[in-house]
Every structure is written in structure tokens, then in C-alpha cells.
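testing teh design pipeline on a random one, pls ignore if ur not involved
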């Protein structure tokens, strides 16, 4: 797709979007649909930057913009809360979330459909939040399990059934339970473990796209060498990998433990995604600071969840009250500044003035009055008394 595309052959909405590309706020849409090479392939812009390079740098700038980062931060928080709810639904005995950090750049879905070749990055299509698909995770782990099983297939079999042979056989049976078995005709065993995928664990430190370069060699050593720019997720971002055992799964504790071992071993050794042979896609355990940050975020989300439960319970209690009592209860719940209410009570409407006085006659209101010991507090108390307290 080029800027000199025949605009008459497109709809009015598409023509408007093409002419106003700077107004696109979705970085993934900008990458997939509006990063066409404006000056033709290999051409330079006014700053002598190749057009494809300029397009990808524009994508990185858009991703770093304040409006996009703010949106992705909220999306990430919502996703983590959803994972918390999923964990609560299945229980810790059947649910696992493993936190690892990227030890280098990460390439996912490099061939994703885009107007530019081989520059795609995997993310949620709607929100643009970076993700690692559960299918990719399952594929990497199943390959690692196969390598592990075939590492020394004859070991121990000549000794009349050694411990090593029995262990290999046991782990092979675990692999069939984890990943499923399609070798038998009519088999419906799709595996006892559900791989949800990988998700950013820190809303304030999201994975970000960075430009990277590969330099293809010309045919027969002849021709012009043109470095090719592409995008990769930056290193040192924290990801949470989520999987859980299906309800009714056999030996869920053993399956989850073995899956966790395969996940840590495979992602730290071979990596995930494209160009792993060149060092991309490797993960590492979290350092002490990252572990503390992850725990603090989980604790904060748990506190918010508990508060939401309390608020929901209180809301249900208020709805069960008679209409006149419900109005007063809702007023008290939504009142954020009792100091201002006490100071300005004389100018309040009759009903609100009565609600303020009723609150200060309650146990909570009396405790608040006792804390107003300075001169300003005494004036507020005097205003309440003049109003009828």
C-alpha cells in the first residue's frame, strides 16, 4: 500500500483515514494499515532516512506517546484483574502464574499481516496490549518435553528397568496428559492443562517496540547491501505465564509442577518466538527488585479487589433500605469532605442540612467532631450547633 494508492477506489472513511494518518491513536492499527512506504521502497525522506525506517520509527514514537501509554496501562491493569479473578475461580491448587523477565529482545508473529514485510509484533488486536499466545506457549513446551523424552531413550532399559527408565516412562505419560494424545484414532484427549498465555506483569513497565536490523547478504556476494529494519519487544520486561488444570484433571499437582519445570527450562534455554537461534526470546528469573515489584502489584490488586467486594456488599445493603433511608445512606457514602459540609451547612438546602446533622449525631460523626480541636474545628462545630446540632 502506497500513498499514491488510487483513493477513488476506496470508501470515504478509508480515504479520510489515509489523509489523516497522524490522527491514528492505535499503534497496532498504525503499524498494520498506515505504515506504508510514503516515498516508495528504498527512497529517502527529507532527513535522508529510508521510508520504511521512518515508518517504523513513527510506530515506536506513537507507542511511547502519553495517550497510548496511558491507555495501555489501564488495559494491562484490567487484564491483570481478570487473571486474578480467573485464579480465584480455579483455586491455587489448579492454577499457576509464573513470572519471568526477558533476557533479550523478543520477536513474536514476525509474519503478521502488515503493509510492510516482516515487521509484525503480536498484541491484542483491539487494545494493542502486548501478548504471548497460549498456543505459542504450548508449542514451545511440547517441543521441549519431546526433546527431554528423546534425550536418552535407551537409558536404563538394559538394566532390567532402572530408576531412570521408569522416570522417563512416567514423564512421557505426564506429557501425554499435559498436551494431549492424537496418535490414537478417535482420541479426544486434548490435554489436561489449559495454556492461557503470557501477559505483561507491570502496567508501568510495559514491553515496548524497538527498531532492530538484519543485514541480508546479496546473492553470490554481489549487489548492494541494504540493512532491513524490523521491530522487536525490548528486553527486561516482566511477563506472567498463565496455565491451569482443567476441572477433573488427573494428578493436577504433578501436571502443574512438571509444566512449570518445562516452562522455566525451555524459556530460559531455547527461548520463544522468532530468531531464538540468534539469542532472541530468552527469559530469566526475576531479580530481587523485580520480585518485590511483582508482589507489591499483586498485593495492591488484592486490596482493590477486597475493597470492591466491601463496596458491593454495602451497595446491596443500601438498596435493601426503604427509599428515604436509602437516600441518606447514599449521601453519606458519596460525601468526600465533611469539613466543607460542616463549614458551609448554613447555605445547604433543608434536606441536605438535615442529612449533615444526622451524620454528625451518629457514632462516626461524633468521633470526627472529637478530632476538631483547633480554632478552625471549633468554628465548624459552632456552625453545626447554630444549624441545630
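output:
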Amino acid at each position: 500500500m502506497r500513498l499514491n494508492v488510487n483513493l477513488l477506489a476506496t470508501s470515504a472513511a478509508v480515504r479520510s483515514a489515509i489523509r489523516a494518518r497522524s490522527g491514528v491513536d492505535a499503534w497496532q492499527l498504525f503499524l498494520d494499515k498506515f505504515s506504508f512506504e510514503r516515498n516508495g521502497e528504498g527512497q529517502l525522506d527529507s532527513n535522508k532516512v529510508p521510508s520504511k525506517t521512518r515508518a517504523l520509527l513513527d510506530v515506536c514514537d506513537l507507542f511511547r506517546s502519553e495517550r497510548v501509554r496511558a491507555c495501555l496501562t489501564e488495559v494491562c491493569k484490567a487484564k491483570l484483574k481478570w487473571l486474578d479473578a480467573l485464579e480465584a475461580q480455579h483455586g491455587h491448587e489448579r492454577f499457576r502464574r509464573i513470572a519471568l523477565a526477558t533476557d533479550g529482545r523478543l520477536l513474536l508473529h514476525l509474519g503478521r499481516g502488515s503493509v510492510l514485510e516482516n515487521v509484525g509484533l503480536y498484541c491484542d488486536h483491539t487494545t494493542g496490549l502486548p501478548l504471548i499466545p497460549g498456543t505459542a506457549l504450548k508449542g514451545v513446551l511440547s517441543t521441549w518435553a519431546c526433546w527431554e523424552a528423546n534425550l536418552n531413550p535407551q537409558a536404563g532399559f538394559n538394566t532390567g528397568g532402572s530408576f531412570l527408565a521408569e522416570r522417563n516412562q512416567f514423564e512421557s505419560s505426564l506429557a501425554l496428559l499435559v498436551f494431549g494424545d492424537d496418535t490414537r484414532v478417535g482420541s479426544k484427549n486434548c490435554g489436561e492443562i489449559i495454556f492461557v498465555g503470557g501477559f505483561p506483569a507491570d502496567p508501568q513497565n510495559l514491553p515496548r517496540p524497538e527498531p532492530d536490523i538484519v543485514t541480508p547478504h546479496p546473492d553470490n556476494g554481489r549487489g548492494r547491501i541494504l540493512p532491513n529494519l524490523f521491530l522487536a519487544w525490548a528486553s527486561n520486561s516482566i511477563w506472567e505465564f498463565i496455565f491451569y488444570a482443567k476441572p477433573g484433571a488427573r494428578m493436577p499437582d504433578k501436571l502443574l509442577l512438571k509444566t512449570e519445570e518445562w516452562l522455566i527450562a525451555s524459556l530460559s534455554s531455547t527461548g520463544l518466538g522468532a530468531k531464538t537461534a540468534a539469542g532472541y526470546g530468552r527469559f530469566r528469573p526475576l531479580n530481587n527488585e523485580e520480585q518485590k515489584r511483582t508482589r507489591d502489584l499483586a498485593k495492591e490488586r488484592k486490596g482493590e479487589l477486597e475493597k470492591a467486594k466491601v463496596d458491593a456488599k454495602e451497595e446491596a445493603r443500601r438498596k435493601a433500605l426503604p427509599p428515604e433511608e436509602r437516600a441518606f445512606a447514599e449521601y453519606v457514602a458519596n460525601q468526600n469532605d465533611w469539613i466543607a459540609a460542616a463549614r458551609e451547612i448554613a447555605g445547604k438546602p433543608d434536606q441536605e442540612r438535615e442529612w449533615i446533622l444526622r451524620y454528625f449525631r451518629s457514632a462516626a460523626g461524633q468521633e470526627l467532631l472529637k478530632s476538631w480541636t483547633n480554632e478552625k474545628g471549633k468554628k465548624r462545630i459552632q456552625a453545626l450547633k447554630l444549624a441545630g446540632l
